[in-house]
Design brief:
The protein is an alpha/beta fold and 161 residues long. The protein starts with a strand and ends with a helix. The protein has a 5-stranded parallel beta sheet, sandwiched between helices. It is built from 6 helices and 5 strands. The chain binds 4'-phosphopantetheine.
Length: 161
């Protein structure tokens, strides 16, 4: 039984995140999508809203035999991963610019918990420039975001405006 944690802010979940989850499903028996509870960050959606949207959109994707669940977590990722009995952390890398930050986190997490592996996955090229931050920025400036996030998320963003 191989269990992975896919941590992130998911504010909001994008089609790039879903692409990574689907790829991760080919490698793991279970993936826990873990939404960081971060009080410092000014977020668009609350933790509850993010978890709810994730749960809803995950029902619409093909995850084969992999069990995919959504949880929120606080504190150290490695501690949370240990509590959940996870073997790996999944992170998406879109471009070289992501690599430096991701490498730092992976190495720090390895130092803190040597048995926990970080697995980097590349999304489809079509999502290589998609980030939650840019989606929010262009949306707030009035640009269309169809195809970048699930339609349910687009709808919820419109309701917030
Ligand atoms: O989607 P994000 O914001 O890039 O995700 C960042 C995340 C949640 C993976 C990272 O901030 C994290 O793991 N936070 C939990 C606190 C922690 O363990 N920090 C040390 C990381 S080396």
């Amino acid at each position: 039984m191989r269990r992975a944690i896919y941590p992130g802010s998911f504010d909001p979940v994008t089609n790039g995140h879903l692409d990574i989850i689907q790829r991760g499903c080919k490698l793991f028996d279970e993936i826990i999508v873990a939404v960081l509870v971060n009080q410092d960050k000014t977020s668009f959606f609350s933790i509850e809203e993010r978890c709810e949207m994730l749960s809803d959109v995950l029902e619409t994707i093909d995850h084969g035999d992999c069990k995919v669940t959504v949880e929120s977590f606080e504190g150290l990722l490695v501690q949370y991963a240990a509590e959940r009995g996870a073997h790996a952390i999944v992170r998406g890398i879109r471009a070289i610019s992501d690599y430096e930050y991701e490498l730092q986190m992976a190495l720090m997490n390895r130092r803190l918990q040597p048995r926990l592996e970080t697995v980097f996955m590349m999304p489809a090229e079509a999502y290589s420039y998609v980030s939650s931050r840019l989606v929010k920025e262009v949306f707030q400036l009035g640009a269309p975001i169809a195809g970048l996030v699930p339609s349910l998320v687009e709808e919820r963003m419109r309701q917030k405006k």
